[in-house]
Design brief:
Strand order of the largest sheet: 8-2-1-11-10-9
Number of domains: 2
Structural class: alpha/beta
Number of helices: 5
Bound molecules: flavin-adenine dinucleotide
Radius of gyration: 19 Å
Helix content: 25-40%
CATH class of the largest domain: Alpha Beta
Shape: elongated
CATH architecture of the largest domain: 3-Layer(bba) Sandwich
Distance between the termini: 18 Å
């Protein structure tokens, strides 16, 4: 029995896994997709996240790969609004007084590297298809790409769902 089953290896699930790995809490992490995203998606990292990465010893890797945001241009049709206020944002309050631009694909890669270095792998092509819970446990039904099913019993399931059938349980 896993203590925790993490469903979804986006930035949220990966960071959850990293924190559990640090605390030596047994867990499994699954994702229905074959690999992490290749898209930029959530592209800005804020100071609070950088502080957590610093505690994990990986902030330097984010700084190497990311770019400090000096300004943002909003372009609507031909009109450009230039907002230069983001440099030194939070100066005096944090070691990271800026917004760091880094594609979600790279954030996921760095968090996955951390997990792997701590002996955990994301189980890919593995989908949560149903779940139920008792007072003590969560019973999750997983299905892999080949259609093979596995029932997992865990103390906790961590996930997010837009499926109304799951929403009341996770
Ligand atoms: C096209 C697109 C563009 C975006 N652009 C931006 C942007 O410009 N800026 C910005 O800040 N944010 C953007 N976002 C939002 C950003 O991607 C999300 O805020 C971020 O991904 C949330 O991270 P997460 O880990 O919570 O969820 P996700 O990254 O969505 O990860 C959830 C994971 O769970 C897996 N999963 C879902 N259901 C199951 C299941 N039943 N079984 C197993 N695995 C499952 C999925 O495969 C996925 O990998 C964009 C999102 C999309 C889709």
């Amino acid at each position: 029995m896993a203590d925790v089953l993490i469903v979804g290896a986006g930035p949220t699930g990966l960071l959850m896994g990293c924190q559990l790995a640090i605390q030596n809490v047994p867990f499994r992490i699954i994702d229905k997709n074959e690999d992490h995203t290749t898209q930029s998606r959530a592209i800005v990292i804020h100071a609070a996240s950088m502080e957590i990465f610093s505690q994990m010893g990986i902030s330097a890797r984010f700084l190497e790969q990311g770019k400090r945001v000096a300004a943002i241009n909003f372009i609507i049709r031909d009109k450009v609004s230039h907002i230069p206020l983001f440099s030194e944002y939070g100066a005096g309050l944090t070691q990271y007084p800026f917004f760091l631009a880094l594609e979600q694909s790279k954030t996921e890669r760095l968090l996955q590297d951390f997990l792997e270095q701590h002996g955990h792998v994301v189980e890919r092509n593995m989908e949560l298809v149903s779940l139920s819970q008792t007072q003590e446990n969560v019973h999750a039904l997983l299905r892999n790409k080949e259609g093979k099913e596995e029932e997992v019993i865990a103390k906790w399931l961590v996930g997010y769902s837009v499926n109304p059938g799951f929403a009341k349980l996770v």
